[in-house]
Amino acid sequence: MVSISAPDGTTLETLYNSIMSSSQSLGARASLRRPSHPRLPFVLLVAVLLASCNGDSSKPPANSRTPAASSPAAPKSVPKIVAFGDSLTAGLGLPGTANYPALLQKKLAADGFEYEVVNAGVSGDTTAGGLRRIDWTLEGNDVRIVILELGANDILRGQPIDQMRKNLAAIIERAKARGARVLLAGMEAPTSAGAEYRRQIHEAFAGLAREHQVTMIPFLLEGVAGIDLLNQADGIHPNAEGTKIVADTVYRSLKPLL
Predict the structure, then answer these.
(1) What are the residue ranges spanned by the domains of the chain?
(2) pLDDT tens-place string over residues 106-156
(3) 192 in catalytic set
(4) Which residues of 100-113 are buried (b: 16+ CB within 10 A; e: fewer)?
(5) pLDDT, tens digit, 9 for 90 and up, residues 219-241
(6) Considering 86, 125, 154, 237, which one is annotated as catalytic?
(7) What is the pTM of this model?
(8) Is-catalytic flag, 212?
(9) Active site residue 234
């Protein structure tokens, strides 16, 4: 009896045993007439069968060529617009699809502009915090435009105006050094801060735009600030309707830069 491993073994074992049973019967009769090696043909047959099953039928012939798998197409890289700011950019109190950078993305797509808008807003951030993180925010990205929206928290906390201005100037220059254009979002102090303080804040942003030759949005919250129906309960952050107006305001100044 011959035993051959699966999967071909069962079939060949049955075939071989059948052959051998027949050979023994024939051999008994043939031995009366033929003196020489009656089983030789059957042994040769089995040898051929065994040789044929040694190869793995599931594998292609050695000289066959398997077509190389095609590599998936690399995702298309598009230039970036980084919205760099505080909670007004992050969209505090709003769904993720309702902040102004998300609305800008839709406007760009509708007008056929291929840019990716990156929301780099951090709630509570100041100009000092922005200066600390601007380099790694822009690192390794094809950033074409930076929308710089910082200063509101400096104003609310009564930070020195000169220091706020220096921080913003440094952020502008670091962004420009990386080849990005800067769109500066102007801020205004609340009326409760007094006329002189408000004048100084206004001049700080306008002066930065002049000195560094960057485009400026005169006031980010134009048409929204101080209007209850367009703001959340805190009276500071725009609600969904107010944010649509903010996105329109930003887009009017952004579009000429594209």
Answers:
(1) 9-54, 80-257
(2) 999 999 999 999 999 999 999 999 999 999 999 988 999 999 999 999 999
(3) no
(4) bbbbbbebbeeeeb
(5) 999 999 999 999 999 999 999 99
(6) 237
(7) 0.72
(8) no
(9) yes
